[in-house]
Description:
The chain has helices spanning 41-56, 79-84, 99-107, 143-152, 170-177, 180-186, 205-215, 227-230, 238-248, and strands at 35-36, 63-68, 89-96, 115-117, 129-135, 154-165, 218-225, 259-265. By secondary structure, the protein is of the alpha/beta class.
Amino acid sequence: MNGIDGGAGGGPAGRGATGIGLERPGRHAAGATAVADASTTGATELFTVAALGYASQRPGHALTLLQAGCTTAGRAPDIEKLRASGYDVAVSLIDDDNAAARATVAADPGLASCTLADLRVVPLTPRSFDIVHCTLLERIANAELVLDRLVDTLRPGGLLLLRTGDRDSAAGFLDRVLPRPFRSLIWRGRRLRPYPAVYERVVSGRGIQSYAQRRGLVISQRQALSLVTARARPPSGLMPACRLVERLSLGRLSCAHDELCYVIRKPEPGFARVL
């Protein structure tokens, strides 16, 4: 199998939004944590603004973006908005090779170029992408190994846009412990329903912060999403069950959110040159 490498597009580059500043590794930006609307709008805006900020600091540079978990990525970040702002963006698509992903790719012509493979071993060229967007981390095994490989494929100064379920949320707990038929009711109508609920320890607010500290990464922004409360007609009993879990856990498992979004920057040493 050929390695996944960053491509380049043609066309003019323009000016975008203001870039995101750097903080100390593993620390949240001041005031960056917020419980947002659970629709994908919050994540799309967060990731699109981050990508625009990155692009604005590199005029004339054609962006390379890797979407890992593309079968559930939706429109985050908004590639068309980036291109409409005058930036060239070459997108590579990749996802874990399983029955659910194969079915999604077969049904969506927009995913025809997706590479399906074991994310733990698929060839990835180091320092080949400006931005990596990763979703569904809570649904895969060896999540920390996958994160390591995605970070390695980032250029210095590049962005990891991460969206994941939270192991330490009430909904995440129910997703892990309930039998599959009940899980299917909870996530009815969402693409993640056929995927297993793995939720390794890194897949939580504390886990991501610890990972960033150990790898010398910078958490620029963190946003919490509530997919459960934003649904027009959540399954009967789901919210009472989440509140019960929160009470029994003495607040450790929150029912205020169930997903986390991060903008994480790979530091660029002062002597490094972005290739």
